[in-house]
Amino acid sequence: MAVSGQSAVFGKRKEPHTVIIARGDEIRHFTVRPWLAAVAGSALAAVVIGYLGATSYLVLRDNLIGAATARQARIQQAYEDRISALRAQVDRITSRQLLDQQLMETKVTELIERQTQLSERHGRLGPLLERAEGGLNNILPATVPVPATREDTSASAAGIIDAPQTLALANLGGTQNGARPFAFWSTGAGSQTPASSADRADKLFVSINQSLKAIESDQIAQISTLANSASESADAISNALEAAGLPVDSDFSQGDVGKSDVGGPLIPVDGTTIFDTKVKELDVALNTLDQVKQDARRLPLANPAPGHAVTSPFGVRTDPLIGAAALHSGMDFRAPVGMDAKVTAPGVVVKAGWNGGYGRMVEVDHGQGFTTRYAHLSEILVSVGEKLSAGDSVGRTGSSGRSTGPHLHYEVRHNGEAVDPLTFLTVGKKIARYM
């Protein structure tokens, strides 16, 4: 292969390179142009550069993929950690809500039980209050606490806090079966967090609990007040009768004997026991008062001519007709002709007619040896054997019999012996406010 020479002289035309290939008798030659050599070199350089670039890419790609994979793994791990933290937080909140739900349901159940108990107590107090109202009337204090009913208690409990702060606790019901999650809903303008709602609910429960305790205390205070009033009334009636020498049941006239001589072990009691004890005390006190009143009402303690002056008392006096000393066995009341003469206690008429110096007279038997006489009547309105109630009219006043003018002659006798009616009238005035 021969290569043509190249002139070194500047400015002369260069001859192209010729490649001659000889094989046997065949000779081939190729002329290599400069631009073709440049293209071939550029292509070779491009191939080399592409190869080197591809190799670099393949080498770097693994590193890039590994870095991307590691970054993705870190992101995924961080995301999973965040999810785990949020799940743990949700579990804690759910657990707390469940605990709060159980606590609130327990509190609601307790409040409902206490409210029901108060309603039942009020139902038990109803008959006693009616008895006390009829038996104590004017002797009760000016203000006596009255237990609230279920509706009153609910209304007072709902009104403990202002309307914007009222919690709808109805959602507490119905969660036992898992129908809906535990939540507090506020009726205020802004939303409330579970923590703040729970705090408000706790305050509400505390307020309701205090209200129920106040109602319980009021009930017990009311019972104690009524029992004390009934006992004091019974004692007052018994003491007045006993002081006047009138018959009284010994069970009701013990006074204060032995009240300071007490003792026994200390045994704490709950509110229900206290309530039951107080109710029994009130029942016993009212029974005692009723019995004492019943005994007192059988005695002639009323005034046969209320509002009329006494013209002649019981005892020794100068006889108005003969002017000599004589025993006046009753009391004379100034009264016009025709005024009603009223019986002073329930009883049975044993005499009704003319009786010597008594003129027209009515005698009533009240039991226990006590009788009363109403004399100098102008008219008799009853007959023998007739049963009378206190205040019934037995006749009209007048001046029949041994009399100097119209008046009412009134006698009280015990076992046939005349006693001073003033004693009975005085006792009647003392115990009138208790009757």
List keywords for this structure.
435 residues, ten-stranded antiparallel beta sheet, 5 helices, disordered N terminus, Glucose Permease (Domain IIA), alpha+beta
Low-confidence segments: 1-7, 142-191, 253-260
Helix proportion range: 40-55%
Quote the beta fraction. Answer: 15-25%
Structural class of the secondary elements?
alpha+beta
Q: What letter string, H or E per element, gives the SSE order?
A: EEHHEEHHEEEEEEEEEEEEH
- Tertiary shape: rod-shaped
**Overall mean pLDDT score?**
77
Count the beta strands.
Answer: 16
The profile of the biggest β sheet is: 10 strands, antiparallel
| Number of helices, where a helix is a run of at least 4 consecutive DSSP H or I residues | 5
- What is the C-alpha radius of gyration, as a whole number of Å? 58 Å
First-to-last CA distance:
161 Å
Describe the structure.
The structure is a single chain. The protein is an alpha+beta fold and about 425 residues long. Among the domains are: about 125-255 and about 270-295, no CATH class; about 310-435, Glucose Permease (Domain IIA) (Distorted Sandwich), CATH 2.70.70.10. It contains five helices and 16 strands. The chain has helices at about 35-135, 150-160, 195-245, 270-295, 420-430, and strands at about 15-25, 25-30, 165-170, 185, 310, 315-320, 325-330, 330-335, 340, 345-355, 360-365, 370-380, 385-390, 395, 405-415, 415-420. Strands 5, 8, 9, 10, 11, 12, 13, 14, 15 and 16 form a ten-stranded antiparallel beta sheet that branches. A two-stranded antiparallel sheet has the order 1-2. A hairpin with a 2-residue loop joins strand 11 and strand 12 (about 370-380). Helix 2 (about 150-160) packs across helix 3. The N and C termini lie far apart (about 160 Å).
